[in-house]
Amino acid sequence: MARGFFITFEGLDGSGKTTQLKRLADHLIARSLPVVTLRQPGGTPLGDRLRAVLLDSRSETALGPIALSAELALMFADRAQAVAEIIRPALREGKIILCDRYTDSSEAYQGAGRELGRETVLTMHRILCENLQPDLTILLLPPLETSLRRARRRNQRHMEQCGIDENRFERESDAFYRRIHRAYEEIARRESQRVVIVANDSSIDAIEMCIASVVDDRLAANVSLG
Fold first, then answer.
1. Which helix (H) or strand (E) holds 37?
2. DSSP state of 183
3. Residue in 129, 131, 141, 213 with CA at minimum distance from that of residue 177
C-alpha cells in the first residue's frame, strides 16, 4: 500500500490553526480521501494525560514548578507515543494525517520561548521520533497581538464554560511570545519547501480557501495520493 501524507498545522495559540485544520479535514473527507486528525499534546490516552499536566495552569500548584527540561521531555513523550500509535500506522495505511502541532512547536515554544535552544529540540526529535518529518506544514502567523488577544479570550471562555483550564502558557510574557513568533519565522525560512506560511489576518473563509488550494496542489503532486 502507498505511503500516506503527513500535514501539520503550526502557529501561536489564537492563530486559528485548530479551526483551519477542522475545515481542511472536512474538505478532504468531501473528496473521499482517508483522513486522520490529532492534536499535540494529546491525541492518545497517554497524550491526553500529559496534556492535562502541560497545559493546565493549576499543575504547578499541585505538582510544584515544572522544570523546563521536564516540560520538553513531556512534550516529546507525548509526541513519540503519537508517532508510534497513530502517525506511522496511518502513513502505512495510506491515510492523510492532519496534526495540530508537532516538533516545530517545541522548537518555537521550548527552544526559543523557554530558551533551551534549537539543537536540543532537534536532537530529541531525531532520537525519539526517528526524525519523522511532515510532508507539509501550514504555518498560520497573523500579527502577534491578534493571536495573543484571541488565545487569552478563548481560553478564559473555555474555562468558564467547560471548567477546563489550559492557560499555563498564556500566562507567559509578551517577550516569551515574541521569541516564539521570531522562531516560527526562522523555521519557515529554513524549511521553505515544507512550510507554507499564512501571515495575513484575512477572513476564516479566505484562509480556508488558500489552505485547501495549497493542499490540493501538494496531494496532486504526490504519487501515492494524486
1. strand 35-39
2. H
3. 141
102 vs 40: CA distance, rounded Å: 7
pTM, entire model: 0.89
Q: What is the 3-state secondary structure (H, E, C) of 46-110?
A: HHHHHHHHHHCCCHHHHHCCCCHHHHHHHHHHHHHHHHHHHHHHHHHCCCEEEEECCHHHHHHHH
At 36, the amino acid letter reads V
Residue 65 has which C-alpha cell? 514548578
C-alpha cell, 215 = 493542499
pLDDT for 68: 95
> Would you say 144 and 73 are in contact if contact means Cβ atoms under 8 Å apart?
no
Q: In this predicted model, what pLDDT tens digit does every residue of 58-68 receive, in sequence order?
A: 777 677 788 99
Instruction: Tell me the three cell numbers of residue 31.
Output: 473528496
Please tell me the total number of residues recorded for the chain in this structure: 226
